Amino acid sequence: MDIRLDEGFLFGMGVFETIAVEQGRPLLLEQHLNRMQGSADFLKLGSCAERGLTKEKIAEYLSTQEMSVKMHGALKIVMSAENTFFQMRENPYMDEIYSRGFMTDLSKVRRNETSPLVYHKTLNYGDCILEKRVAAAAGINEKIFINTKGQISEGTVCNVFFVRKNMIYTPQLSCGLLPGILREYIMERFQVTETIIYPDELMYYEECFVTNSLMGVMPVRQLGNICFPHRAKADEVREVYEKEKMSL
C-alpha cells in the first residue's frame, strides 16, 4: 500500500467509513458513501466517486477477498487529499456478545460539542481509540462521552439510545455526536425522541442500547452504576434490523 504524506496522514484531515459486510454484501452502502461525501466536502477533499470510492470499485475489491472474511466482515474505506484505500477484516461482534449485553461506563474525557470535527467521521479519532483502550483495560465493552455541558453525547464507537415507558430517546446531534448510519436507520423506522440527557437522569430509564454499523443493535446491561434490567425494546429494534439488513 502506497501512502503519501498528506494532511490526512500528518494531521488526521481525512475521512473514513466502516461498513458491515454480510455474506459478501456491504450493508447500507449508499448511506455510507453519502455520509463520506458530506465529510469529504467539509474537509475539501473532492469527489469520492472521482477518486474511485464507488459501489462498482467496492464490489471489485470485495471480489478479491476471501469468502471466509466476507461472510461476517468489516470493510473500511479511507480518503484523504492524496490517498484512497480499502481494508477488510473480520467483524468482531458475535451472537454471544448480544446475549450478554454490553457493560459500559462514562468517560472522563469530555466530548467537545463546539468542534465541527465531532460531527464527521474523520481520521481525527484519537480520543475514541484511547478511551476504547481504557474500556478494554477496565474489562468493559465501551465508554460513553459526556460533552462540555455535562450532557450524554455518544460512545467511543457508537450512538446511544435509552428507553422509558416503551419510548426511545437519544441525544440531540447538538450534544456533539456523529450522526450514525444505524442511528438514522432506527429513527426512520421507530418513533425516537432526540433530547438532552444528563447522567443523573439515567436512573429514570428502563433500557439502554448502543448502535453502530458493525454491531447493529447492542443491548446495554449497565452504564456506570446504573443497571438496565430490561431489553425488550432493544430486542425489538434488533429483530427488525436483522430481518431487513440483507435488503439494505
TrEMBL record:
GO aspect biological process, one term: amino acid biosynthetic process
Pfam assignment, any one: Aminotran_4
CC per GO annotation: cytosol
Obligatory cofactor(s): pyridoxal 5'-phosphate
Keywords recorded for this protein, A-Z: Aminotransferase, Pyridoxal phosphate, Transferase
Record PROSITE patterns: AA_TRANSFER_CLASS_4
Coiled coil: none
Molecular function GO labels: transaminase activity
Family (UniProt): Belongs to the class-IV pyridoxal-phosphate-dependent aminotransferase family.
Protein name (database record): Branched-chain amino acid aminotransferase
